[in-house]
Design brief:
32% helix, eight-stranded parallel barrel, alpha/beta, single chain
């Protein structure tokens, strides 16, 4: 059985709860984490939303072996704990190996399963056993109906606080497309639904040895998903996107984040009044 709303530390997400924003840098960076967290706290208070800070310590599925991988598990968990303790925010990160789950679960209220690994049973079981909420991104190669079995794997492993996240489907070469109907389908499984607006505009391998993207499409897709009905929005943001070592092409500049959130919240209020 899956909860809805789900419990994520001290906050809740789902039916009857405040809209949730999951946001932060693609890769954790010591010099930028606090600035991003500070702005997220401000937006939380202004727009009366819930916020979770997201940052990755390992980019294990990069296009090239020469691409930046991240700060590493020990350093990443330390940085996440610093953000949590300084700003009072719940934090999340993605895991790629089963052994990482217990370590991450000591700090994070929410554990993220990457889209490429959403069918990996051992990874899902390890995440469930931490007792933390789990956010699973739908594989780019999967139909929304396939995610029912992902939910069952987590439930049978002891996790009832599950979120499902849509982030696009492979189409042809180097493109992702979003079927907004997937949001409706996955909601039938009883979980809160998240839309990943920035990874949805990726162009995998589009820059040769790195992934490209089109950040101009982030807001239109986020607004469309909100109009269909979502409980949470996931996106990556950075004060200076070009200085991010990962996914710089599709990240939202931090100074533009408020405008996007304002529009999303306005649409969310209209949808929830129906």
């Amino acid at each position: 059985m899956t909860n809805n709303p789900v419990n994520i530390g001290l906050i809740r997400c789902g039916i009857g709860e405040r809209f949730l924003l999951i946001a932060g840098p693609c890769a954790l960076q010591e010099e930028f984490n606090f600035a991003i967290a500070e702005e997220l706290v401000r937006l939380r208070d202004v727009y009366r939303i819930n916020v979770i800070f997201k940052g990755s310590f390992d980019k294990a599925n990069r296009t090239s072996i020469d691409s930046y991988r991240g700060s590493g598990l020990e350093s990443g968990v330390r940085m996440l704990a610093e953000v949590r303790d300084k700003f009072g925010l719940s934090v999340t990160t993605d895991i790629h190996e089963s052994y990482q789950a217990a370590v991450v679960g000591e700090v994070c209220d929410l554990i993220q399963i990457p889209a490429f690994l959403s069918r990996q049973t051992d990874l899902l079981v390890a995440a469930a056993r931490t007792g933390r909420a789990v956010n699973v991104k739908k594989g780019q190669f999967m139909s929304p109906d396939d995610m029912k079995n992902v939910v069952l794997k987590l439930n049978k492993s002891g996790c009832e606080n599950v979120l499902l996240c849509e982030r696009g489907t492979f189409f042809g070469y180097g493109r992702l497309v979003n079927d907004m109907g997937a949001l409706v389908t996955m909601r039938k499984f009883g979980t809160p639904i998240v839309f990943d607006a920035t990874h949805s505009v990726q162009e995998p391998g589009g820059l040769g040895k790195t992934t490209g993207g089109n950040r101009e499409l982030v807001e239109p897709l986020a607004l469309a998903a909100t109009a269909v009905g979502i409980d949470a929005l996931f996106l990556e943001t950075h004060p200076i996107p070009q200085k991010s070592p990962s996914d710089s092409a599709n990240m939202i500049p931090l100074k533009q984040l408020e405008s996007l959130i304002k529009n999303v919240i306005e649409i969310n209020h209209i949808v929830k009044k129906k």
